[in-house]
Amino acid sequence: MNEFLSWSELGFLGKALINLGFTSALLGMMTAAFASLQRPPLSKGVWAVSTKAFWGLQLASVVGASAVLLVLIANHQFQYYYVWNYTSLDLPMEYLLSAFYGGQEGSFLLWILMSSLLGLGLMAWTRAPYRWPVMSVMGFTQVFLLSMLLGWSFSDGVLLGASPFRTLLEEMPNAPFLQANPDFVPADGRGLNDLLKSPWMMIHPPALFVGFAMMTAPFAFAIASLWTRTYHEWVRPALPWTLSANVFLLTAIFLGGYWAYETLSFGGFWAWDPVENASLVPWLIGTAGIHTMIIQKKSSRAHSASLFFAIFAYVLIIYETFLTRSGVLANASVHSFVDLGLYNQLLAFMIAITALGFGFYFWRYRDLPKPKKESSLLSREVLTFTGSMLLLVLCLVIILETSSPIIGRLFYDNPTPPDIQFYNDWSGPLALVMGVLTVIGQMVFWQRHSWVSLGTGLLLPTIATTVITAISAIMGQVNDLYSITFFWVGWFTVIGNGWVMGSLLIKKPALIGGTVTHIGFGVLLIGILASSKYSTFMVPPVTESFNARVAAGEAFDEDGFPITTQIESFELQRNQPKVIDQQYMVTYEGYELKDTPRPGTQVYTLTFQPLDGRESFTLSPEVYPMSSTAETDRVDWSVDPDILTGWMSDIYLFVGGSALVERSNEQIAAQATMNEAAMSRTVSGQSSGASSAGAQAAPTDSIAVVSLLPNNPVQAGPYQFTFSGYEPAQEDEVPENTQVAIRANIQVTHMPTGRSYEVVPLFAVFIDEGENFTYSPSLRIEEWGLDVQFSSIVPNDESIEITVAGLNEFIEEDWIYLTVEKKPFVSAVWLGTFLLMGGFSISIFRHWGRDTQAKKSKHTSDSSPQPLVA
Amino acid sequence: MKIKVLLGVAAIIVFTSLVFYNFGNSISTYVDFEGAQGMKGAHVVGTWDDTQEVYFNRETMQFSFWMTDETGNKRKILYPRPKPNNFEQATQIVVIGEYRGDTDVFVANDMLMKCPSKYNDPNAFEMQEASS
């Protein structure tokens, strides 16, 4: 065990560290505020020094508390509620690490840790006059975040925060088993949610919280700028942080989307789920802020917009945190957090941040610099600004929808979640306008243009776009106007920005960040529409023609009503291939059971044989029982799709049901009834053994007696039996006193697959105590679950009789329902995302470099700037 | 300048009302089977009635079952996909769809299931009941 501290002392240490962190954040916030108010600002004054000390203490406490939690998790200390609730003994090390942030408390701790580290960086690299105001704002946010983990309970039942170090006893003091034995430690924990057992989910939360933490920086700089009334300079240090925050948020969004695509079975990477929106919305506003900050740097305009976006991005992070963590969305989202009773605290945080940010903003609003003269419509300022406004509009629409559980009450008492179509109806057209604007904006950004010269400059890209759109529309059989427009804009964005990038590459390659980002946006547009609207279900020809009838309104059900929904899935028997999409012969080869990382996982093997002679490939979708919800008498099944990724299209499939799953369910149900029966028998004190025989016997319709004449095939069930002759039996195979012993040569063919087996069952007659007995053990064909017994010889007509059991077994036993989708150009979605990340990263280096150069020439800095290297 | 401000305000008003109009249409309220009469895309909340027949048509891949809504009305539901894996475990089912013609059969184009999750039920301790 532990040499220095007992496990209970370690938990106490964790709580103490959280309290210490909270206190030092509070004190640091105040000393930083005093340091900011000091005139002239000093870098070595008492307030400055104590701010540094308090921040250091806070960071040390937070690192310490995180280490304690990690140690408790790694050592399976199930007396702690958090450890018990989110981990179990069978978790491998990497998922124990995921479990650290698998729950609300731990994810808050991760966020705090990231913010604490960020604060250290800000303190080292930020200069006067922003340094101490920024640290004061950072302290302010840390105070609120740390308060979520305090776990203080007051006498009147009011709770402040939920500690990750609370014990089971503290969590449920009234539980009878804990009252009986307060030292009770469960043998095992409840384990990590199975959906989170994915490598993508190990890195998604850290990326997200680095993004959240970094988004505090522009907020802090904006407040510092309003505080010190220095409205021009703050964007220089704030811009690289905003760009970095955006890269991390985008990475998190990408990881989340990829995880959803390959783990969940809704068949896509984006579902406009509130939790997804929570990461998208701050990203959109961060992007809008980046645009206005760039104008402010270049043209000394848009000060008020830059401040607004810097504040709004962080306000939105807190607002979305409130929505997803307070329990407001419990019914609207598939993956919102457990309600920990932090509603009031989160609400207070949100109100405080909004009041501080926008309060300051409107207080200083009249003081903000205003442009002296209007920009022309075709200036980079106006175009870039318009881009930001469109991002804002898109963001507002998404916020409205995400808030529908609250705002929907204006319309209905009990509102349903919004129709996904609403998002698509608004985001699509807005994205189209943005796409066109990026090209004109980039043209004008690097070169002064008149309307005429712009028109001339756009001529070639427009022609190229139109040609390529026409070709791709014909090849992809795209024939509705909206899609054609959408693809045109996508290509225009790629080609137009590529055009600009080409000329920049010749002149000054360091400047291509913006064009790369915008090309990425265009690629993303193409990928999103192609992969969602043109995704098709791959089904057998029978279903294809049925679906064609449905589409034509000519399909009717038994009662004569028109069927309006096309069939998306099909049944596949084991070893009975079907052709799907007129392209692949798909065979279900069977299943395997495996226990890592999820116990009881069924891995189905499916072989795809392309009809055009390309190499065949195998996909292995899984079905597994969710251990997070498992109980003895029932099981929740979850599906894990498999994907074949390709440049042109992905093949995405999952098993929607199978004989195996049904059988497991029946077994579980039978087990439950048997347990009940066993229990009632014990209670009544009676015992009966009569019913067990019947339960063991196979269903009668699967047993048949078949008479076979030599070389005369006979059919039974899906099989054909051919008796081709006798074979002598060896002496050592038969009982003593055997009179006759002979084997029959029988060929069994499974007709649907054409596979056959030879069986040679034995028939023997022996004498025991003067009586004749027959001995004829049955032989089993394992693959089909078929038993063949040579049951008698008919002397008169040379025929024999065999008894076969399990005729229907094979048919009943192994089938799956398979849903296969072909999704074109999902690759473009990922490629577009990577280009966005790459473009932003190029810009980070450029702006960070320019920022430090500019400062070196102007100020004698009190700490040496270092390049931002992740 | 004045004209620009006016145009801006007008644009904001038009935009906002359009968004809200559209938003109002995209949401609706949960109803029972009575209320779903004549509606398209009605959301009905209820539970599976396991005393009635559950049937899956392998030809048309249609799954049918009976559901009891919150006010106790029972209807037959047609769902055009295989039975969801967690169907039996769901404590609550939301069917989204409409009646088929003027029959009592409800066609669920979409179906959501609310399954009990231990994470949302912090007081359940394996087999033992814990009260707090």
What would you say this structure looks like, in words?
The complex is a heterodimer of chains A (870) and B (132). Chain A has 870 residues and is of the alpha+beta class. Among the domains of chain A are: 1-194, no CATH class; 198-276 and 285-366, no CATH class; 541-664 and 816-822, no CATH class; 702-807, no CATH class. Chain B is of the alpha+beta class. In chain B, strands 1-3-4-6-5 form a five-stranded mixed β-barrel. In chain B, strand 3 (62-69) and strand 4 (74-79) form a beta hairpin. The N and C termini of chain B lie far apart (64 Å). Residues 118-132 of chain B have low confidence and may be disordered.
Can you give me a brief rundown of this structure?
The complex is a heterodimer of chains A (870) and B (132). Chain A has 870 residues and is α+β, with helices and mostly antiparallel strands. Among the domains of chain A are: 1-194, no CATH class; 198-276 and 285-366, no CATH class; 541-664 and 816-822, no CATH class; 702-807, no CATH class.
Spell out the blueprint of helices and strands:
The complex is a heterodimer of chains A (870) and B (132).
Chain A: H1 7-37, H2 46-74, H3 81-86, H4 93-100, H5 104-125, H6 131-147, E1 152-153, E2 159-160, H7 168-171, H8 176-180, H9 199-228, H10 235-263, H11 274-299, H12 303-325, H13 343-364, H14 380-402, H15 404-407, H16 420-446, H17 451-475, H18 481-507, H19 513-533, E3 536-537, H20 541-551, E4 569-573, E5 578-580, E6 584-594, E7 601-610, E8 617-619, E9 622-625, E10 637-640, E11 642-644, E12 649-658, H21 659-684, H22 692-696, E13 703-708, E14 714-716, E15 719-728, E16 738-750, E17 755-759, E18 762-768, E19 771-775, E20 779-781, E21 786-793, E22 800-805, H23 809-813, E23 815-824, H24 826-858
Chain B: H1 2-26, E1 42-48, E2 55-57, E3 62-69, E4 74-79, E5 92-99, E6 105-114
Parallel strand pairs in B: 4-6
Antiparallel strand pairs in B: 1-3, 1-5, 2-3, 3-4, 5-6
